[in-house]
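Customer escalation, tier 2.

The customer says the design service returned an amino acid string that "doesn't look like it belongs to this structure." They asked us to rerun it and document both sides in this ticket. The original structure tokens are below, unchanged.
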């Protein structure tokens, strides 16, 4: 991982932890006695667990937007329970728009791994996963295909949608922890489109294109 990117991620993590510590210290000041000690111990354990989890995510490549080859796809799915994969082509302008937004969201949501695969170099995988439109985001949770974002139809059918709108759409799929109002797109001016969900497909090496749960 690039040192500058890693430093930025760690800075964001530290800032988030500091804010939580300040908030918890204020709450602790309002308590006393046995309740105070129990709550203090509970919160410290929770914060340690969160820090360990974040370190584990970073060690697995979370926090950055990474390109992988077709052969690395299944290993990546086994390593990270929540994955967003961008199937792209180099000469497709809309793929570059996705690249811009996904890089930003990846640095914010360490709980998921953000990847990209050149569909032209992965015809077998693209065929098995029924990738027919470029760009397409495939969303996998716990080794199964959970959702697709095909083109920009769910993002207002425009090229100038905001990063927040894509973040909301990913939150709607359950692959990231969205902190806003999930019932409304982040951009109120965005066209509301019906979100079509494809049947879940099991992601494994013997995946069959006509197989469904």
């Amino acid at each position: 991982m690039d040192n500058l990117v890693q430093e930025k991620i760690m800075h964001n993590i530290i800032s988030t932890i500091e804010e939580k510590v300040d908030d918890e210290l204020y709450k602790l000041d309002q308590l006393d006695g046995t309740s105070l000690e129990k709550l203090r111990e509970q919160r410290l354990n929770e914060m340690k667990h969160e820090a360990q989890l974040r370190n584990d995510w970073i060690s697995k490549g979370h926090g950055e937007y990474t390109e992988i080859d077709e052969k690395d796809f299944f290993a990546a799915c086994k390593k990270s329970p929540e994955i967003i994969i961008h199937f792209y082509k180099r000469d497709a302008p809309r793929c570059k728009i996705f690249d811009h937004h996904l890089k930003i969201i990846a640095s914010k949501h360490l709980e998921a791994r953000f990847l990209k695969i050149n569909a032209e170099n992965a015809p077998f995988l693209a065929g098995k996963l029924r990738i027919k439109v470029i760009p397409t985001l495939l969303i996998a949770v716990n080794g199964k295909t959970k959702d697709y974002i095909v083109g920009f139809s769910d993002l207002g059918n425009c090229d100038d949608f905001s990063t927040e709108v894509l973040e909301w759409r990913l939150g709607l799929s359950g692959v990231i922890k969205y902190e806003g109002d999930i019932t409304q797109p982040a951009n109120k001016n965005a066209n509301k489109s019906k979100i079509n969900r494809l049947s879940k497909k099991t992601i494994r090496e013997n995946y069959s294109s006509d197989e469904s749960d």
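Tier 2 assessment: The sequence is consistent with the input. Confidence is low (pLDDT under 50) at residues 188-213. The first strand starts at residue 65 and ends at 67. Sent an explanation to the customer and offered a walkthrough call.
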